[in-house]
Amino acid sequence: MSGLTLQEIGNIEGITRERVRQILHKELSVEPYLEQIQLNRQNRPHKLTKFIKVCPKCGKIFSGRVKNPEKFTMCTECRKIERRARRTATFVCKNCGKVGTYKTYKKAPTFCSNQCKLDWLHKIVRRKSVSKG
Ligand SMILES: [Zn+2]
Ligand SMILES: [Zn+2]
Fold first, then answer.
1. What spacing in Å lies between the alpha carbon of 76 and ligand 1's midpoint?
2. Which of 78, 102, 114, 133 could form a disulfide with 57 if both were Cys (CB 3.0 to 4.6 A apart)?
3. Could you state, in order of their start, the residue ranges of all structural domains in the chain?
């Protein structure tokens, strides 16, 4: 049957060309048909897309399944680090000069610890009393 055209098959069976096509589609092309459905499903833009990328920061290969793969330029680990870095900043302790970190949604601290704050205040008091006396 495979060597015949739809018209020729139709003539033999006594049915229209269109009917032959329908029968073939139903009975013989089940597998390619399912494949096509699967392809259509993958090509739907609102569906999640699979992607594999190389992280520019650590060089690790990462993959995922998201709506917008172009949004993901770094691996999950590096994104976490980046986010954390954006939320923290560094400051220098006015008393001991040590560099510390603080959360950017808070005010930048002046001293690394309460002890440094007290030490600093003591220094000021001492300096004042020295200049006085
Ligand atoms: Zn990375
Ligand atoms: Zn300090």
1. 7
2. 78
3. 6-43, 49-83, 93-132
